[in-house]
Structure formats: structure tokens, C-alpha cells
Design brief:
The protein has six helices and two strands. It is mostly helical. It has two domains: 100 residues, no CATH class; 49 residues, no CATH class. Helix 4 runs antiparallel to helix 5. The longest helix has 16 residues.
């Protein structure tokens, strides 16, 4: 795992990949509360090390219990694996996971990412509609209506969309 940009002289291909794919640039979506929700800029550190007395369950820490080696110039570089970066050529956020609690935290936080506000609003409206007319909806129709709203409003990743279109089995 690395969090530094290699120099062009050392490895021009990797330097270009890191600059293009792994350097964070603030946008309106990352600056919702006057600070970056992804934790950038990250602190400079001489070496990768564990942090002392860190509460990994605190949302502000985002499950991180370590700092990676990086210079001041690399405070906006997202952690990456150079072998994976060369092959996949896509942004990544490689993280250290420690023990079963760390793994559970990582998996749960990844699969329970907040859905967009338009889904929340659509669900709120349909639940209010279904609740306001209990005689008009059977239990089956209520579940169908709510489920259909989720499917119509939820955003999918490209991989999930391809799997659904191709009728691939989820494991």
C-alpha cells in the first residue's frame, strides 16, 4: 500500500496513473459540511504507523487506526496498490483491516453507504401514501409498491447494472 506519488524519472507510467486516478480534488459533493467528507488533506507522516487510542467506531475516524507514510506534497493522494493500479487503471482506496472487528466494520460501512436523498424522499412519499389509505393496499401490494420504488429510485454501480442486465447470479 502506498500513498505517495512516484517521480516521473523513477516510474513515468505509475506517476501518470497516480496523478490521474489517485489524487483527490475537492468538489461540492465532498465539501458538504465545510470539510472534506473523505478526510483530505491527510496528515503527512514519515512512516506508516498505528495511531494510539483511536476509537474506530467514531464516524469521524472512518475506521482508520493508522496513518500511511506520505509527504506534505502527497496529502491528497489516496492509498493504492501499484500492481492493482497498473492492471485495473481505476481509482481505489486500499485500507488496512485488522482483525474480525475491523473486517466487520469495513464490510458493514461499505454495504450500508447512505443512499441518495432522492431515494429517501421517494420512499417517504410512498410510505406516507400507503399508510394514509390502509384499506386500498393489501400487504402484498404495499410491499410491491415500496420495493418497486426502491428499484426505480436507487442508483446502481456499473458492475451491478451489468449483472442485473445480464441476469448474473449474485453470490
Amino acid at each position: 500500500m502506498r500513498s505517495t506519488k512516484p517521480t516521473k524519472e523513477d516510474d513515468e507510467e505509475l506517476h501518470n496513473l497516480v496523478c490521474r486516478l489517485q489524487v483527490h480534488h475537492h468538489t461540492s459533493s465532498c465539501r458538504r459540511r465545510n470539510s472534506c467528507r473523505f478526510g483530505f488533506p491527510r496528515p503527512a507522516a514519515e512512516r506508516t504507523h498505528l495511531l494510539q487510542n483511536v476509537d474506530v467506531t467514531n464516524p469521524r475516524n472512518r475506521g482508520r487506526f493508522y496513518e500511511t507514510a506520505r509527504t506534505i506534497d502527497d496529502q491528497y493522494v489516496n492509498a493504492y496498490n501499484d500492481v492493482i493500479l497498473r492492471r485495473c487503471r481505476a481509482n481505489m482506496d486500499i485500507q488496512i483491516v485488522s482483525g474480525s472487528h475491523g473486517l466487520a466494520y469495513y464490510v458493514c460501512s461499505y454495504i450500508a453507504k447512505a443512499e441518495p436523498d432522492d431515494l429517501k424522499q421517494a420512499l417517504g412519499k410512498v410510505i406516507q401514501d400507503v399508510s394514509s389509505q390502509p384499506q386500498a393496499y393489501s400487504l402484498k401490494r404495499k410491499l410491491y409498491t415500496i420495493g418497486n420504488t426502491v428499484l426505480k429510485s436507487r442508483r446502481l454501480s456499473a458492475q451491478e447494472a451489468a449483472a442485473r442486465i445480464g441476469h448474473l447470479q449474485f453470490i
